[in-house]
Amino acid sequence: MWFCPFCSNILQVEPTRFVCGTCPYQQPISSSRKQRFPQTRKRVDDVLGGAEAWDNVDQTDATCPKCNNPKAYFQQLQIRSADEPMSVFYKCTDCSHQWCQR
């Protein structure tokens, strides 16, 4: 897609040129011209609140699926609608592996 450098509208394609539909801008079509735009990814927020969310949580008897440690920290969060049960998130006390039970 090509965009007008003056009004930022999408340029329409005619047989020999690109034409803007709102302003008088025109650009001849050349087959060797390519334009790339840098793609930047948006930073994803941690759903559980980051490392400080696990500071003051309780422990329970839950076996870690990664290292078979019998103890884990846990917290409950409502991540679905109100009529759904809460999700329980676990973090191993030994290897810090995280998993959830829905």
UniProtKB/TrEMBL annotation:
The keyword Calcium does not apply. SMART domains: RPOL9, ZnF_C2C2. It is found in: Nucleus. SUPFAM superfamilies: Zinc beta-ribbon (SSF57783). Keywords: DNA-directed RNA polymerase, Metal-binding, Nucleus, Transcription, Zinc, Zinc-finger. Residues 60-100 form the TFIIS-type domain. Belongs to the archaeal rpoM/eukaryotic RPA12/RPB9/RPC11 RNA polymerase family. This is DNA-directed RNA polymerase subunit. It comes from Tetraparma gracilis. The lineage of its organism: Eukaryota, Sar, Stramenopiles, Ochrophyta, Bolidophyceae.
